[in-house]
Amino acid sequence: MAHGDAGLFFQQEKALFGDKFSDMPSAIASRRAGPAFEFGFPAADGSGSSFGSTVENGRPYYAWNCYAHTSGDRYTTNGKPGWTSFSAEGNLIFARVPLANASNQAPVEAFRLGADGRGEFALGPIAPNYVVAGVQVVGPRGAAVPDAAMAAAAPTKAEFDALAGTVNTLLSRLRAHGLIA
Fold first, then answer.
1. In this structure, are residues 46 and 100 in contact, taking their beta carbons and an 8 Å threshold?
2. How far apart are alpha carbons 150 and 58 in whole angstroms?
3. Residue 92 included in any domain
């Protein structure tokens, strides 16, 4: 180690932690159940965060203000409520770990990005009645298509043109009197 390099780790080969198994060409591998890496502000009030894999199903996760519990797919907090994001069956899920100082908490799903590309809040879709990129998204109130009553109430082209003419006439008169620029 050169002068001033205290605390630095030099390794020529991959650094392996945990179960000593790796299937990627990464520089560092940590393969084990539970929190693999810890990061965050150095305080004992729950500011620490982690990433790794859950114990029961091995789901990869990132956790803010919490870490994977020692059993199951549950989390522990140490002073602050937490958040976690994890992968399950191709979905990316964002969940709350609601209690500020408790262990063995099941995550409470708040939002998911589905394997099919759709985003959804736990209480319903983000955009329940919109067509995105030609794909109709059907929400709790139905599809985003006008019904017969709405179509019947819509103005005809002639009615719309007459209204636009009236608005333009009004604007011209207001300009002529110096009320608008």
1. yes
2. 51
3. yes
| Contact assessment for residue 53 and residue 29, using Cβ atoms and an 8 Å cutoff | no
Tokens of 25: 């060409």
Is the domain of 102 the same as that of 40?
A: yes
139 is a domain residue: no
Secondary structure class of 98 (helix, strand, coil): coil
Residue-wise pLDDT for 58-96, tens only, equals 888 899 998 888 888 899 898 899 999 998 888 999 999
Alpha helices by DSSP H, the chain: 148-153, 157-176
Final residue before a domain boundary, out of 99, 114, 129 = 114
115-147 residue pLDDT tens: 888 888 776 555 444 444 444 555 555 555 555
DSSP-derived pairing of the beta strands 119-121 and 124-125: antiparallel
pTM: 0.57
What is the C-alpha to C-alpha distance for residues 56 and 52, in angstroms, rounded to an integer?
Answer: 12
Neighbours of 75 (CB within 10 A): 29
